[in-house]
Amino acid sequence: MKLKLGKYEHYKGNQYEVIGVAYHSETLEKLVVYKALYQSEEENLWVRPLKMFEENIIVDKKEMPRFKFIGIS
């Protein structure tokens, strides 16, 4: 399944905008490129392995997505 571009909410509550998927130059691992919507422009770009971005986690004995899609930016 292809990752949707747009806004996501992290399980801790902060919002991010996914701007694309990149490849690690050495390993070809897929990395999600996203920006924090709560930070200033100078420090708001982040990357995370696609597998980790899409995984479910357990919080307070409840399974939930690490990042939940909340809409198009």
Describe this structure in words.
With 73 residues, the chain is mostly beta strands. It has one domain: SH3 type barrels (Roll). The strands form two sheets. The chain has a five-stranded antiparallel β-sheet with strand order 4-3-2-1-7. The two termini are 20 Å apart. The mean pLDDT is 93.
Widest sheet: strand order? Answer: 4-3-2-1-7
Structural class: mainly beta
Using the coordinates above, name the CATH class. Mainly Beta
Strand content: over 45%
What's the SSE pattern?
EEEEHEEE
Shape: globular
> How many domains make up the 3D coordinates?
1
Short description:
This protein is mainly β. Helices cover 7% and strands 53% of the residues.
How are the SSEs placed, and which strands pair?
Blueprint: E1 6-10, E2 15-23, E3 30-36, E4 45-49, H1 50-54, E5 56-59, E6 62-65, E7 67-71
Antiparallel strand pairs: 1-2, 1-7, 2-3, 3-4, 5-6
